[in-house]
From TrEMBL:
Stretches that traverse the bilayer: none
Subunit structure: Component of the NuA4 histone acetyltransferase complex.
Database matches in InterPro entries: Chromo-like_dom_sf, Chromo/chromo_shadow_dom, Chromo_domain
Gene3D superfamilies xref list: 2.40.50.40
Residues of the Chromo domain: 13-72
PROSITE patterns per record: CHROMO_2 (PS50013)
A Pfam cross-reference name: Chromo
Name of this chain's protein: Chromo domain-containing protein
Length: 73
């Protein structure tokens, strides 16, 4: 498993892809697959934590809904 990068003394994990999305009263959350980690470690993160990953969000949103459902891990 790949360790996080340290940037300004903070751990930074790289997102490989977004596999799901949900909107609720707390906001928008994305389920992400971390680079170098198995699917068991996929995790829900708030949209604000993906502010440096606009290309991944665009890629996920451009998939047809049926593909997004098929790609869930």
């Amino acid at each position: 498993m790949q360790p996080p990068e340290l940037i300004d003394d903070e751990e930074q994990w790289e997102v490989e892809e977004i596999v799901d999305k949900v909107k609720n009263k707390e906001g928008v959350w994305y389920k992400v697959k971390w680079t170098g980690w198995g699917d068991i470690y996929n995790e829900w993160v708030p949209e604000e934590e993906l502010d440096k990953a606009p290309a991944l969000k665009r890629k996920y949103e451009q998939q047809p809904a049926r593909m997004r459902k098929r790609n869930k891990r």
